[in-house]
Specification:
Blueprint lengths: L4 H8 L1 E3 L6 E4 L2 E4 L5 H9 L10 E4 L16 H17 L3 E2 L9 H7 L8 E4 L13 E4 L2 H10 L1 E4 L3 E8 L8 H12 L7 E6 L1 H4 L3 H9 L8 E3 L4 H7 L9 H10 L12 E6 L6 E3 L7 E3 L13 H11 L14 E4 L1 H4 L2 H11 L9 E4 L4 H9 L2 H8 L2 E2 L20 E4 L14 E4 L2 H10 L9
Parallel strand pairs: 3-4, 3-6, 4-5, 6-7, 9-10, 9-12, 10-11, 15-16, 15-18, 16-17, 18-19
Antiparallel strand pairs: 1-2, 2-8, 13-14
Length: 462
Amino acid sequence: MKQNIINKIWDHHVVQNKPGFPTTLYIDRILLHEVTSAQAFAELKKRNIPIRNKDHLLATIDHSIPTDKNRAVIADEIARTQVDTLRRNCQETGVTIYDIESSHQGIVHVVGPELGFTLPGTTIICGDSHTSTHGAFGALAFGVGTSEITHAMASSCILQSKPKTFKVEFTGKPSKYFTAKDAILKLISVIGIGGGQGCVIEYVGEYIRELSMEGRMTICNMSIECGARAGLVAPDATTFAYLEGREYAPKGAAWEKAKTEWLKLVSDADADYDQSITIDLTDAAPMLTWGINPEHAIAINETVPGLDSGSDKSTLEKAYAYTGLHAGQNLAGISVDYVFVGSCTNGRIEDLRAVASILDGRKVAPHVTMYIVPGSEQVLAQAKAEGLDKIFAAAGADFRMPGCSMCLAMNPDKVPEGKRCVSTSNRNFIGRQGPNSITHLASPQTAAASAVLGYVASEGDL
């Protein structure tokens, strides 16, 4: 029977199928951070259950950690407790943790790939919805609840219902300044925040194949924003070139053997999917969100949609009221107060290089506060080695330490009330970046151009 890659990976990890029950699915890798792991450790300790396959776990600190230079001092009591608890749990159990100054602390979905912990054909879970990022490597990766983390730590298995499959093909050649971030925003604007509900998406097409691993990670990262359980891209030479030599990747003969197996991870010709869609990117312009969820995305040369656009009217009315925008309004030219570059969506070295190329020789507008936050200590070190930090400083941007930062209001980095931010993160929900703050999701290039000009703009406007 002809199979797609999603079903191939799923079937390879099935431990048990019983009619009327969820599948018992084997989990290869578990990623942990300070916010969602404490209860899992506590439950295992309470019941005196050892961790199975301890070397298949990796922990880091990202959500609650401050990103200023004095990040070792955590003023918020809840955040400090979360961080200290993870440190203690890992010390007591022997789970590997990448803490600050380890050279690899950072956002869990940046650290996993850069260490080669994320590998093709594996199943990966984390107590974080954006675990879908790791699907860029041809892995079946998805976020789970704390109880499922507990089960997986104890048994290397969880109970899961088999997801539906969804093929998304990108066709056509977009405009010069269009990026992977724009592609995923384009998809979500077309199918909506529930368009991929219950599905794992496979991304295909020449556009995807030409993307770097960073670009593929950006697209898979935001799969969750259209309701999908996960997203993935079949592994290829680009995948192998990224992984080779990384710490947790196979070495020597094991590497060659692994590549041979990974090359089999491809959907069969004419494989069936539960649904499919083709997104034409021909001459597509950069995208950004205008409203209060990622579905509210338009091209920078388009106007805010009206109540007759087909979206839920009550949500649109709420979005107009919250953002201070109105139907028919152009986003381009709207003044911005903050710009944030970072997050598990766009905090990698490729993103920082793109921003540096725009800021080089330019200044951030006087009324704009710009945060640039590397996704990991490795990204930080690489940016400094390439002199990007000097470019950021000369432009007047604040280049900070690694962490989730301004993506979510769970640490000191927040957008103040009533202020408007162009952000490279993944969610523009009400209050996501701070109470009553306004978020416009965009690519690093659009964010950087907006920071320089002081208003919503694309790289082509410079």
